[in-house]
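Researcher: Structure prediction, please.
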Amino acid sequence: MTSRMTSNTLRIHISHPFGRTTKAARDLADALDGLGGGSVVASCSGKLIIDQHWPTRAGEVLRSAHWLLLIFGERSLDRDWWLWEAGYFAASNPAAAARTVCLHHPDLNVPRTLHAWRTIPTTNAQADSLLREILDSHPSPTGRSLVSTVEGKGLRLLIECLVQCCVPAVPEPSTDPAHTL
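Model: Predicted structure follows.
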């Protein structure tokens, strides 16, 4: 995450479960971070060190975020990881309902509890539309749309990174003889 934060900075936090989605979420945060000459600051759960200071650091990130992207790529949908971050963002951000987006693989049914927010299956077309919306929601310091700074290959890279965040892990084959035929 870049250290330069001004009122002209668009801040995005990517909330995800630790594990398989961590690398993809970090890649997306890295691709977003610094766009528009530093106009975008992106963070993700995987970059926050889990220690006794985690709640303070996570709170600072979530209080300053304009958008919260909840990544659901796993079929198990273990929900513990997002409860704290989504609740904190909602409590500290008046625009939270409109700017909390649950992203999931198109074949994955998300729990009804998440339907209070926008739920988006991450196809290339949906990812493109969402990224354009997010980048258009906050002008760059020059007044130009942030989308214009990433058109073409840059936007395709962001779309690919976002879609990769929601690809479910391939199930591990069982090595337990009781589960084999």
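Model: The longest helix spans residues 20-32.
Researcher: Thanks, that helps.
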